């Protein structure tokens, strides 16, 4: 298999972007965009190469995707365009700075404190825990801007997990954070629905977490 990778490069965050083409040839029918990038003198971020860490999020043939989960053979045509995520500042080539997203999650304190109740909200917590914090959903979200207050689905998933597990006494503050960081900013466009590489059922999770956080209804898990 032979592909031409057209990569949008940039030497540093202040320099002008430019397109550069690389020829890539392999006999491996399962080669991914990540496999090809490993052979090229291009800066990008990766870790697990197994669709588990979200580090290799980028825009491939105009679609936000994980490079390690995008098979070259599945991409139509001889040429593949590869660009960095557009909602975050570019550091170099395909490497972007997702610090704003991480800072927001830190502000929201999206980790379990003592007292998580493992017996409740199991289904919702499991779905939410699939989130890789890759930021691909933010790429297509019309309401997300790196410096804004809205955290998008990348904030919704960990908050939903917490809300489903924390005892009622501790959920009050979480509900407030959820309202501010997710509910108030979400226009319900559901642009993120088909993008998530973790296959999170975003629509269902949104419905459940809105119900739990905003309308304070009992979680579906508890009703069953
Ligand atoms: S919700 Fe899906 S697309 Fe968004 S950050 Fe989590 S894993 Fe990535
Ligand atoms: S390198 Fe971890 S998800 Fe692609």
Description:
- With 224 residues, the protein is of the alpha+beta class.
- It has two domains: 2-96, Beta-grasp domain (Ubiquitin-like (UB roll), Roll); 99-223, Fumarate Reductase Iron-sulfur Protein, Chain B, domain 2, CATH 1.10.1060.
- The chain is built from eight helices and seven strands.
- It has helices spanning 33-38, 99-107, 122-128, 136-140, 152-165, 168-183, 202-213, 220-223, and strands at 2-9, 18-25, 57-60, 63-66, 79-83, 90-92, 95-96.
- A five-stranded mixed beta sheet has the order 2-1-5-3-4. The chain has a two-stranded antiparallel sheet with strand order 6-7.
- Strand 6 (90-92) and strand 7 (95-96) form a beta hairpin.
- Helix 3 packs antiparallel against helix 5 (152-165).
- The longest helix is centred in the C-terminal third of the chain and has 16 residues, at 168-183.
- The model is unreliable at 220-224 (pLDDT under 50).
- FE2/S2 (inorganic) cluster (FES) is lined by residues 46-49, 51-56, 66, 68.
